[in-house]
Write a structure and sequence with these properties.
By secondary structure, the protein is an alpha+beta fold. The protein is built from twelve helices and seven strands. Strands 4-3-2-1-5 form a five-stranded antiparallel beta sheet. Strands 6-7 form a two-stranded antiparallel ribbon. A hairpin with a 2-residue loop joins strand 2 and strand 3 (39-43). It binds zinc ion (ZN). It comes from Arabis alpina.
């Protein structure tokens, strides 16, 4: 594993690894938990692609890319009969690694990295300062969620990266601002200034004008401020209690709020 890439070979994988691949020519990354035996448990945006959902957000329907639709319409797998297994209405899916990667490269998400290492990464969502729980616990969480679901997919609140992060750390964020845990979500929304200012990096910013003029470093710092290993507003949630917490997190009012934020910025 090099310093600037997390790319790994399949034979290097261990059960409990958080892996990801890039889809649609690096437009976004897709994450999952490797559970051994060539299988990956991951969370897919199935719920957001139903025609009824698209109709309710009229103009948004045209912005759904072909690749996203292709993702939802999974080709049948001839290698493993249990590939594509999921519970009805759940976005958590068991896939073989071939179907997960779709010929993309394989990367491993790093846990327990140092702050300087974290900030050196150009692209968000490849590592975190938080440390991973023991392998058995990670795999058990993934398998539990495969049977019980992980709420509705929402790019701002609950995406595939959040799913993998939760399996690895058991951490959920308690905030009310509609900011997800992952680099993927914070790169879409941008971190609210409050989150940025409450981070330890405030010391590096001389004054409010400085905040406005920081551009190149802003993205890295907003990611740092929202990294699950840095935030103070995270709680450890046992996987058995997750449904309760997600039920609260994914209510309609909060989704609307997340959209409002993106429009106003
Ligand atoms: Zn397959």
């Amino acid at each position: 594993m090099g310093l600037f890439t997390n790319k790994v070979e399949r034979d290097e994988l261990k059960p409990g690894d958080h892996i990801y691949t890039y889809r649609a020519v690096f437009a976004y990354s897709h994450h999952g938990i490797f559970v051994g035996g060539c299988k990956v448990v991951h969370f897919k945006p199935e719920q957001t692609l139903k025609p009824s959902t698209l109709a309710s957000s009229s103009s948004a329907s045209s912005s759904v890319s072909v690749s996203e639709v292709n993702d939802a319409l999974e080709a049948p797998c001839f290698t493993y009969p249990d590939c594509g297994y999921k519970q009805p209405k759940s976005g958590v899916v068991l896939s073989c690694i071939d179907c997960f990667l779709k010929k993309g490269s394989l990367y491993r998400f790093e846990y327990g990295v140092s702050s300087s290492m974290f900030l050196s990464r150009v692209r968000g969502g490849t590592c975190t300062i938080a440390s991973s729980d023991p392998v058995q616990i990670v795999v058990r969480r993934a398998m539990h969620l495969l049977q019980n679901g992980f709420g509705n997919y929402n790019v701002f609140q609950n995406n595939c990266e959040d799913f993998a992060l939760y399996c690895k750390t058991g951490l959920l964020i308690l905030d009310k601002n509609g900011v997800g845990r992952s680099g993927q979500a914070s790169s879409v929304l941008g971190a609210p200034l409050a989150a940025l200012l409450s981070s330890p990096l405030t010391l590096l910013i001389p004054n409010p004008v400085g905040v406005a003029t920081v551009t190149a470093g802003m993205y890295c710092m907003s990611r740092y401020a929202t990294d699950i290993g840095v935030r103070k507003d995270v709680i450890k949630v046992p996987v058995e209690d997750l449904a309760l917490n997600l039920g609260f997190k994914t209510c309609e009012r909060r989704k609307v709020k997340a959209v409002d934020t993106s429009v106003s910025t």
